[in-house]
Amino acid sequence: MIEGLLKNVEVDRIMESVAAGQAANLSDAVDMAGFESVLFSISFGAIDTGGIATVKVSQCDSEAGSYADLLGRSVASSADTDAQGIILVEIKNPEERYLKVTVTTSIADVEIDTVTAFKFGAKKLPITENDDIIDSEQHVRPAEGTA
């Protein structure tokens, strides 16, 4: 049984905020060495009427190499009512070490808030968080009181 996520999941922001527009936006590479799975969380801000955001994942055996799209359909937001929404994509046991996310916005402006990678299934625990994490703490059966 997992004793919580904080020491069992590595969190990394792989794409910062992208102003509303229409473009293909590529994330930083995610190194899957030592991990079984990753959950990508793609969060959006404003989506103008008619705006479409398409999300796909690609892989490569080297960080700076040529990435190939993973087989399967891409995931999309296709309505301005999806504004402030989140798309989740999980990749389990990728065939190559490095993964990237491409978020393509088209037709009308779409704002990308952030893309975050949650790597889990680590071969070595506990996880040591990267520099994106400013601070963290875990509470087990906390008593009530002033924080």
Q: What is the strand and helix layout of this fold?
A:
Layout: E1 10-15, E2 18-21, E3 24-26, E4 30-31, E5 37-47, E6 52-60, E7 68-69, E8 75-77, E9 86-92, E10 98-106, E11 110-120
Antiparallel strand pairs: 1-11, 2-11, 3-10, 4-10, 5-9, 5-11, 6-7, 6-8, 6-10
Give a short overview:
The protein has a single domain, classed as Sandwich (Jelly Rolls). It is globular.
Structure in words:
The structure is a single chain. The chain is mainly β. The protein has one domain: Jelly Rolls (Sandwich). Helices cover 0% and strands 46% of the residues. It contains no helices and eleven strands. The strands form two sheets. Strands 3, 4, 6, 7, 8 and 10 form a six-stranded antiparallel beta sheet that branches. Strands 1, 2, 5, 9 and 11 form a five-stranded antiparallel beta sheet that branches. A hairpin with a 7-residue loop joins strand 6 (52-60) and strand 7. The chain starts with 9 loop residues before the first strand and ends in a 27-residue tail after the last strand. The relative contact order is 0.36. The mean pLDDT is 90.
* CATH homologous superfamily heading: Galactose-binding domain-like
Mean pLDDT: 90
Shape, please?
Answer: globular
CATH class: Mainly Beta
As for the CATH topology, it is Jelly Rolls
Distance between the termini: 28 Å
Which structural category fits the helices and strands?
mainly beta
Q: Number of domains in the coordinates?
A: 1
Unreliable spans: none
**What is the architecture at the second tier of CATH?**
Sandwich
* Beta-strand residue fraction: over 45%
Q: Work out the helix count.
A: 0
